[in-house]
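Q: Please design a sequence for this.
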């Protein structure tokens, strides 16, 4: 619901963007595409959460994929597009790649400096530990992260002229692959000077996240809310700060469904939302709040990044069903030229509340080591 549907919507969205429609116009395509799927192509009754995740989630994820695909296809001085550029473009936005070949005279790309300020990718190992659970050690993983900034001081800001994205794939001992995608991008705002920063943004930001993790289960969201980005830089060091508070439509793994079975949900006639998911990990879906604060410091080859991400999801069906939690990552990175290595520690805390049942609490932490290339 919260990964496949947003990608499905991103394809609808990318079809419109690739033939010249704006962000807001393309949002109509992901919305109508979702309605088409829900009413005419599925055998189950239409679902509100599917519509939200496909339309809004599809737009928020789709714009990032579209702009990334543009970067692979646009002309670069002294360099022609190769097989890897075409492959990456197909993977990020198939509609753009197809339409750029069907209508080469109608689709043009901007020239000049790349708006990607930072790109890193590579591999690593991860270890997870939780109270009362066995350790899960040395899980192989892949990662990619990027920061995109096409804003100019004093000029208007278009949707996703600034965004960040990080994605991870981690294979655990059972053979399953855990997926984690964290994105944020500006929808509208100002790039004027704030707090004497060298670069700054303030306005309304959008968020799409999908996280699977050992012992902290799943969390996802699509949200909109106020935020800011500040960047300070001199010849010796840089400091970056980002904060935002989002009103979200989210989903979180439902611990009470996993522990007590589906009896509470059968009593409330809610097996449509929970019963079929019990074996795979039931989840609550509904409105909530998500906030994030990130601070990064870099001096020469060494950088430190810390953050806090808090979320709360209230089920729209199960009365007083709430999932609350926070994640606190701390990352230390060393970079020499284009080679980088990182060590990350992350604390995860979860609280689960359901009616008058005793609240459930759980703490977990992960340790990850990455190495790769930074551009």
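A: Design:
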């Amino acid at each position: 619901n919260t990964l496949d549907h947003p990608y499905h919507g991103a394809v609808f969205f990318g079809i419109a963007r690739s033939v010249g429609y704006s962000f807001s116009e393309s949002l109509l395509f992901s919305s109508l595409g979702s309605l088409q799927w829900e009413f005419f192509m599925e055998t189950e009754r239409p679902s509100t959460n599917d519509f939200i995740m496909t339309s809004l989630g599809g737009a928020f994820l789709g714009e990032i994929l579209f702009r990334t695909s543009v970067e692979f296809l646009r002309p670069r001085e002294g360099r022609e597009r190769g097989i890897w550029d075409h492959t990456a473009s197909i993977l990020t936005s198939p509609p753009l790649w197809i339409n750029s070949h069907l209508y080469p005279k109608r689709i043009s790309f901007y020239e000049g400096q790349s708006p990607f300020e930072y790109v890193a990718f590579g591999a690593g190992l991860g270890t997870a530990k939780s109270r009362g659970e066995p350790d899960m050690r040395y899980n192989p993983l892949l990662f990619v992260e990027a920061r995109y900034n096409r804003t100019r001081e004093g000029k208007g800001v278009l949707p996703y002229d600034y965004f960040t994205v990080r994605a991870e794939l981690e294979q655990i001992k059972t053979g399953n692959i855990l997926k984690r995608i964290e994105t944020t991008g500006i929808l509208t705002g100002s790039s004027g000077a704030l707090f004497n920063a060298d670069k700054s943004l303030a306005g309304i930001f959008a968020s799409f996240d999908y996280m699977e993790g050992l012992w902290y289960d799943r969390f996802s969201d699509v949200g909109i809310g106020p935020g800011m980005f500040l960047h300070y830089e001199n010849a010796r060091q840089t400091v970056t700060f980002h904060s935002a508070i989002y009103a979200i439509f989210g989903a979180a793994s439902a611990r009470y469904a996993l522990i007590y079975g589906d009896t509470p949900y059968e009593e409330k006639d809610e097996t449509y939302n929970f019963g079929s998911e019990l074996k795979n990990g039931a989840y609550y879906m509904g409105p909530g709040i998500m906030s994030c604060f990130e601070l990064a410091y870099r001096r020469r080859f060494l950088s430190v990044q810390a953050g806090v991400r808090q979320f709360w999801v209230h089920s729209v069906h199960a009365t007083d069903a709430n999932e609350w939690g926070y994640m606190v990552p701390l990352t230390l990175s060393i970079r020499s030229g284009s080679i980088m290595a990182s060590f990350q520690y992350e604390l995860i805390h979860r609280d689960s509340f359901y009616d008058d049942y005793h609240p459930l609490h759980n703490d977990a932490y992960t340790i990850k080591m990455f190495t790769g290339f930074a551009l």
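Q: Thanks. Anything notable?
A: Residues 115-374 form a domain with the Outer membrane phospholipase (ompla); Chain C fold (CATH 2.40.230). Residues 48-73 form the longest helix (26 residues).
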